[in-house]
Protein: NmrA family NAD(P)-binding protein
Organism: Actinomadura rugatobispora
Amino acid sequence: MSDIYLVIGAGGAQGGAVARRLLRDGHRVRGLGRSVRGPSGVEWVRGDLADAAAVRAAFEGVTRASVTLPMEFDPAAVARFVDNIVAASADLERLVFNTGNRVPAVRTGVAAFESKRAAAEALLACGVPAVVLRPPVYLDNLAAPWAREALAGGVLPYPLPAAHRVAWLAHDDLGALTAAAFDRPALAGAAVDIGGKEAVTGPELAAAFTSVLGREIRYVPVDPDAFEEGLVPLLGAEAAAGVASTYRWLAAPEAAGLYEGDPAKLEALFGVELTPLRTWIGRNAA
């Protein structure tokens, strides 16, 4: 019997990227979800993280698990998810937790940050060899329909100040880094800031799009309130407010360095070659 890799979140963008990478590497992959939509080849257990019995069933026979939590901003609900994971994970050889965002060094009062901080601390302390991956924002956000529509008009809008340097991460690179984290003993017990090949300002990001697309693209910072308003039809009011709260915190000058990175160090640590920014643009936005 081959090892079973459980990917919690396999039906979403981030977890789906992890599942695709593991499937590509020839692994047997199991997912947990109420709607069993995701990469072809995933074996599904029906349920969600609030259902302790479903979580136990999902972890049965599993040797390695990748965890990406759902978009939930209630700290009590997130804590319940994590408790169910910890209770079911005793037999794991490795657990990799993707926080879905960087976690600031200081306490923020922002539920989206603080619930992930608490989850990371609990999973690192659960007795299973665990690795916490803390990504910045994702390049794949810029391939969404709203971004493509804006790019067609020569604009790259995003709710981050233009001067903030961001090591935008590709979903495919998240999958590669997660797969590597399963098998690198030196990473056990570590919490690592991950990111992409280059950390760029908003105008530098727009310049990269300009050079690949062959037409002028300019970066436009979006006010977090306006961003929240645009998210409501897509995510609902509660989730939109939760997402926007992170960008309000990130707008402060003292938050400018949160999304930077050290790609050379990251590549050496994980043995992974990250995707160059312009290569990603050529594949996904051209």
In short: Residues 75-88 form the longest helix (14 residues). The domain at 4-136+170-195+259-274 is CATH 3.40.50.720 (Rossmann fold).
